[in-house]
Structure formats: C-alpha cells, structure tokens
Design a protein that fits this description.
There is one protein chain. The chain has about 120 residues and is mostly helical. Helix 2 packs across helix 3 and helix 4 crosses helix 6. It has a two-stranded antiparallel sheet with strand order 1-2. It is about 65% helix and about 5% strand. About 15% of the residues are buried. The chain has one domain. The protein is elongated, with a radius of gyration of 22 Å.
Length: about 120
C-alpha cells in the first residue's frame, strides 16, 4: 500500500473484508464490560448523547464503562450480603428449606438490583 498522509502522521488501517478502514479511535482493544456497564452505555446513548459521544470519541468509553461495572458489581454483592444478614437468611435456612431460601434470596436480589440501577447505572 502507498504511504498515505494518514499513515505518515501515525495512523493505521485495519483490513475488513476487501476494505482497509482507518483506526480512528484510540484503544480499539476489547475490554470486559459486564451487564451493569452495558446497561449504563445503553442509558447514556439514549439519555445523555453528548456525554456518550464525548467518551466514545476520546476513547475513554471502555474504561469508564469498566469502572461503572466494577462499582455496580461491588455494590450489588455488598448489599446482597447486608440484606441477607439483616433479614436472617442463613446457610442453616438453606440446608433446612431450600425453596424458602431461594424465594428470599430472589426477593433480595430484585430489590438490590433496583437500588444499583437507580444509584449507579441510570444516573
């Protein structure tokens, strides 16, 4: 390929099928963004378009979403443990009555999910 002005200024191309596409955004590597980060990205894209576009064009979006995902996952785990302890859901209950334990834990998970969504993801 010919040395283009874009290549001379430090740019590179990626071959996709028969086409060479310029690598316009820095950091094209995939980052591990979980469910909380993906939900936040969707919310940003729909409700905060300017913020989403700024993060995307500066290449900061993957790191930002990974950070939100980590915070949300930590908050989710911590709150589940706290709610279970507060409501007296123990391993003994799990051993004695699994169905009741599953019902309580599902109730706790749903409440905690709503808290995490409202506090971190949709704000």
């Amino acid at each position: 390929m010919h040395n283009t002005i874009y290549e001379q200024s430090g740019g590179s191309y990626t071959q996709v099928g028969d086409y060479l596409l310029p690598d316009l955004l820095p950091g094209n590597e995939e980052s591990a963004v979980g469910i909380w980060g993906r939900r936040h990205a969707r919310w940003l894209r729909q409700n905060r378009r300017v913020t989403y576009t700024n993060l995307l064009t500066t290449g900061k979006l993957p790191g930002y979403l990974t950070e939100i995902d980590g915070q949300a996952q930590e908050m989710f785990s911590r709150l589940i443990e706290q709610y279970a302890a507060t409501e007296g859901i123990t391993e003994q209950l799990k051993a004695e009555d699994q169905l009741a334990w599953v019902g309580w834990m599902n109730s706790i998970r749903e409440r905690v999910e709503e808290i995490v969504l409202s506090e971190l993801v949709y704000c």
